[in-house]
Amino acid sequence: MTFFPPAPARRRQAHSAFVLLLVAAVITLWAEAALAHAVTLGDQGYIQEITGVKIIPFLYLGAKHMVTGYDHILFLLGVVFFLYGMKQIAAYVSLFAIGHSTTMLAGVWFEFGINSYIIDAIIGFSVIYKALDNLGAYQKWFGVQPNTRIATLIFGFLHGFGLASKIIDYDISADGLLANLIAFNVGVEIGQLLALAAILVMMTRWRATPSFARQAYGANVLMMIAGFTLMGFQIAGYVVA
Q1: What's this model's pTM, rounded to 2 decimal places?
Q2: Is the distance from CB of 228 to CB of 124 less than 8 angstroms?
């Protein structure tokens, strides 16, 4: 279900969403400052100091990274926003998981990373892309609907490079590296499932309300604004750095 409502409806939704836009902007600004790269200084120090196989800690760190990774969760929300069947949801989430698992593991193992500001800006763009896709923008503007499954896989690869770049920056010990990476990745998937469960509970209740069709447009506009905000932070950080 993708749509561009008529102009009067968009004006009404814009008016009712004004406060939500302000709240979303404040939350995004706070999150960027408080959860930079979704790893606290304490966790970063711990990652840099430990050696050997540490399965449980890396499981925890992977799950924590995903649950507090608002950019990943926003993209995941966009992916499942108009998916109703569990088979569809499982297929798309699996593609995303395959993508980010592949590049995260390969990127760290072969020490191939992308500048954190650049890759995080691209991840912010992925949120914008998916919000526009949900709004039917590509069909309306270009008369073409991109393959959403391929797009989900590609952005999964890019999200994985984001994870890899952060781990490489922490210069974790080579002792037990593979086992710890696998544990971290499993933790990421556990965190993703927890986030997905919360999203689906919220979406199921929301879809049951008569106002969902009206509010869906505004929600995706909010998502797009959050994506632009995330991109802006990362681009500004890159320029300053």
Answers
A1: 0.81
A2: yes
Q: What is the pLDDT of residue 41?
A: 60
Distance CA 65, CA 53 (A): 19
Q: How far apart are CA 183 and CA 60, in angstroms?
A: 9
How many degrees, rounded to 5, is the angle at CA 33 between CA 30 and CA 34? 80
pLDDT in tens, 187-205: 999 999 999 999 999 999 9
% of the chain with per-residue pLDDT over 70: 82
Give the pLDDT confidence of 57-78 residue by residue, as tens digits. Answer: 899 989 988 888 888 999 999 9
Give yes or no for a contact between 24 and 219, defined as CB atoms under 8 angstroms apart: no
Contacts of 15 (CB under 8 A, 6+ apart): none
- Rounded mean pLDDT of 160-187? 88
SS3 content of the chain, % helix, strand, coil (to 5): 80, 0, 20
Both tokens of 224, joined, read 């797009």
Compute CA distances 20 → 25, 38, 70, 94, 130, whole Å.
Answer: 8, 24, 17, 31, 20
Write down the domain spans for the chain. Answer: 7-240
Contacts of residue 11, Cβ cutoff 8 Å, sequence gap at least 6: none
